[in-house]
Amino acid sequence: MKMNKNTKVLFALMMAILIMISAAGCSAGGGGEKEEAPDPGIEDGTYVVTFKSNHAMFHVSDANNDKGILTVKDGKMTVHVSLQSKKIINLFYGNKEDAQKDGAELIEPTEDTVYYDDGTTAEVYGFDVPVPALDEEFDVSILGTHGNWYTHKVVVSDPVPGDDIHAGSEMDLEDGEYEAELTLEGGTGRASVESPAKLVVEDGKATLTVIWSSPYYTYMKVGGKEYDPVNEDGNSTFEIPVTKLNEPFEVIGNSTAMSEPHEIAYKLTVSVKE
Predict the structure, then answer these.
(1) Per the count of CB atoms within 10 A, which of 87, 173, 174, 229 is most buried?
(2) Mean pLDDT throughout 250-269?
(3) 129 and 184 assigned to the same domain
(4) Is 200 helix (H, G, I), strand (E, B) or coil?
């Protein structure tokens, strides 16, 4: 078949485009080799890490104190986190718009058991979340039982080699009774707690007696667990677990001193002179 001048020019142009596409494919593909994963900056292994999001509705179970287990393998990082309950049924690595597209790869839950300091347990959902980098925000979207997607910012940080979230949670004190200095921050500033207070350590677990300056506290929350008063008369008194010294941790007191009960968040610091 003879080609006229215009046909020859078009044919030559098409061949040039095909050659360029082929060359670009070979350059990007590296001869069929897989693209290497970016260096995560830590060696392959398992690590206990801190996992935090920018919203209270999406966070690690209080039993695990914002901790998850990071697995590093062949330069890729994945963190496993146990959440508060079974109300989040799917995750997606990315934003909520992409999560709802056809073919989106949703992260399915696992059935996890979490262990609280008082010996109780709970069944919750856990998820394996890809981690692009440590100490940098990335998007994770969540799907709740109501069928709505939400996007949150997540940060994974502070890797410590190991796979025991509760390692080091026992008090570094011998069994016995101690006098503890208490510092209370937050709230309205009108409430206080007695200091010094009694701290009892038994089998490595510490229990603190907290006496408020008011009789109107009906319960306290520590690590998401409620604790009832241990007295019937006088100022509200509670026995709560303590897992760390010399660092503030959150406690919540439910006060009936106002017209309606209110949960008030405080920061409590416990110090012991051995």
Answers:
(1) 229
(2) 90
(3) no
(4) strand
Is residue 33 in a domain?
no
- Tokens 């215009």 map to which residue? 6
Residue 97 falls within a domain, yes or no? Answer: yes
248 cis-preceded (ω within 30 degrees of 0):
no
Tell me the residue type at 259.
Answer: S
184 Cβ contact list (under 8 Å, min separation 6):
191, 192, 193, 266, 267, 268
Structure letter (DSSP) for residue 231: -
Contact 69, 48 (CB under 8 A): yes
Q: How far is CA 110 from CA 91, 160, 257, in A?
A: 12, 24, 43
What's the rounded Cα separation, in Å, for the pair 83 and 60? 4
- How many independent structural domains does the chain possess? 2
Mean pLDDT of 127-141: 96
Strand ranges (DSSP E) for 162-213? 176-186, 197-202, 205-211
Instruction: Write down the pTM of the prediction.
Output: 0.55
**Count of positions (residues) in the chain:** 274
Is 133 within a domain?
yes
pLDDT digits (tens, 9 = 90+) for 204-245: 788 999 999 999 999 998 876 789 999 999 999 999 988 788
Structural domain boundaries, residue 196: 176-272
Distance between CA atoms of 150 and 127, rounded to whole angstroms? 16
- Residue whose pair of structure tokens reads 């996992």 in the numeric block: 51
- The residue among 161, 193, 218 that closes a domain is 161
